[in-house]
Predict the structure.
Amino acid sequence: MAPKVVANLKMSEYLPKEIESYWQSMWLKNKSFKPEPITSSKPKKYILEMFPYPSGNIHMGHVRNYTIGDVVARYRNACGDNVLHPMGWDAFGMPAENAAMEKKIHPKEWTYNNIKAMKKQLQSLGLSIDWDREFATCDPEYFKHQQKLFVDLFEAGSAYRKESLVNWDPVDKTVLANEQVINGKGWRSGATVERKTLTQWFLNISKDAERLLNEIPKLNEWPERVKVMQENWIGKSIGISFEFKCIDPENLETKPIKVFTTRPDTLFGATFCGISIDHPIAIRIAKIDIAAKEFIKECQKIGSTAEAIDKAEKTGFLSGYKIEHPFKPGTFLDVYIANFVLSEYGTGAIFGCPAHDQRDFEFAKKYKIPIIPVVCPENESDGSLKNMSESYTGDGKIINSEFLNGLNIKEAKEKASDLLTLNNNGEKETNFRLRDWGISRQRYWGCPIPIIHCSKCGPVPVKSNDLPIKLPEDVTFDRPGNPLEHHPSWKKTKCPNCMKEAERETDTFDTFFDSSWYFARFCDLDDTNPTNKDSANYWLPVDQYIGGVEHAILHLLYSRFFTNALKNSGHLNISEPFKGMFTQGMVCHETYKNHSNEWIEPSMVIKNNDGCFHAQTKEAITIGSPEKMSKSKKNVIDPDTIIKEYGADTARWFVLSDSPPDRDIFWSESGVEAAGKFIKKIWNTILHLNDLSKKKETNINNASQNLKAGNHKTLSKVSNDLDSLSFNKVIASLYSYVGDISKIKEEDCINSEILEETIYFLIIMLNPITPHMAEEAWRLTQKTKTLLCDEAWPKYDKDLVKESKVLIPIQINGKKRSEIIVAVSLGASEIEGLVLQQQKVQEIIKDTEIKKIIVVPGRIINIVI
């Protein structure tokens, strides 16, 4: 049925506001993007963008992310796939509690209000979402299944509780995972992170480290940089652990210090020993030495991540303990409590070899510890490493190492390892940087961990029929800490086993727990089980996952582990959740500051020939470099403003143009205006061609034949670029194509059927990118009652796509000197003859002897003289 709103428009009018709202309501009413049942004979495609946190408003990064996913979903649907393209909300988290304290609103109310507002904004983009599958992770219908999954993991031994040194955010008053500490500060609060010992819940992801690492090369549709980031984070190290004989400050022999190293070949360069701040010796000293205690306290402020420790100044505390060098009896090295030694890697102790480790080098320079080079570059003299300005970590031969001298690094490692195994309890080991995943968070607005603590039975899982464990709504945020811990009654309960008085676990799950399996839930919202195995078997893995590279370690690694854990517990049949991974670039904008160094919003900035000024105060504004749009720097553009002024199709077009989608895009008002003008040009071109097609021209002249060839060549290129997610190339092709066909005039006498094909192809190609305009143009120009979103992608004619001529570069002695256009059908000898007749080639060659001519038809010609 023709739309009432747009039916009365004149054919020449393009009014995005009316057109877009109408088609969005039509798609929603018709459930246009609901996938077919899993019994469908069509090939399936599961397209998923990382679901958003409901902060209140979408930003341009959301627009780019979800537009990319939508283009893929619409295109695959047109290609005949059964497409699942769902949306949900990553809805638990600390910001809701912050809002509760600042705005005096309950986290639940704040979250669901934001979901309502952001859903409306996302729908205004015209996304081809199956909204019937929508859920939020804070819905009890979702987290009851999550609690069941945790109980399964607990009973399988994959979830456990232990005392651990954690990253503590003193502002948010919660534990942070290592990945959530950025430059020593909490990723949300920005507060300096401290190290603190707490009893926490963990998932044993470290036991899955080898599999997680070995599967990475098989992820053929993932970006290489993401795979490298995962490999580095898992961090496999093959080395040897061994013991140093140790003496205490009283010169009495005490328990040996065990270390792990991947470089036993550098032992003769060892000049000190470093232990972590929670090493047993450090703890022992801190109990009797106030200075050591204060030193450890200071170290705890820098966080426990490798990144934070690497960036901090290397400091140490001389413990008074010494170790004996294993290869030089009677030589003792000082033991320092050192802030850069990681307690969770290896044994929490290292031998320091300053000449060949940069952290050791910086430490040795600070405390005037000797630096002894023991590896020398192969072709340099032994004295080349005197007066070192940094550590040497390259390959070479062993020096200053007695019985290891002259060996290469591999040989020296083997010989040193053999001796350490024989004399120092040495044992070859494989270590991983990856640590078990701490999932406890000390906050209210999170999924309750379904455990009851009983003084008799210990930690007891809640029975399935008692799930979900819901959060109490009568909580207050008037004092620091976890409101669940302060609640007068919520945590009081009875043990499911012995029925004695007991207490609920008051920690809630890390939100990365919530997002580590949501993709499986989208397959089927089965109320009785976390996953419906038939649906999961059909839809999983996700064929194309789309999101920011900032989640390349954290979220993807946890999801990979969780998927395998669900397989082991019988919920899924796959180990890897994402077949294809795409990381889009950021949306960047200029930054602005006033004389007080305060950030200024773009809407408050006026530019003219005299400079850049504040719209209200008229003071001069300094323009900074373009950076990722962020609220903190106030360089955010509200998508609603763009959509209201130009339309969603213009916003979609702009975020896909100019830059490849995996690179950053730079926002500019002029760029958006240009996109808006071109959208109108497309609209006018379609109407113009539609009028010309009604002339019923039946002859097929040369112009008609060229147009038909252009139609099929453009369709071929756009199809290939959509397949490779090269959306900026698609936009470039459409710019060129529309530019050409907009010049067609009545006197060109173009065949009407070819004009109709031109309109048809153009609308089809526009549909994934500018679906509202395309759908409306389809309604106005096509003699069918079906919607464009249900139309199949056309096939191009391969014969018309073939080029009859090709441009080939001509090289002389490997340097390009000219080029030639030849028929594609010509053979090598014919091409060779034409090249030698070229005047420019003859002028260069003259009487010089031609040794040989290499002709690669269609590619290159190289004349060797």
Notes: Residues 521 and 531 are 6 Å apart (CA to CA). The mean pLDDT is 92. The two ends are 73 Å apart (CA to CA). The chain has 28 helices and 34 strands.
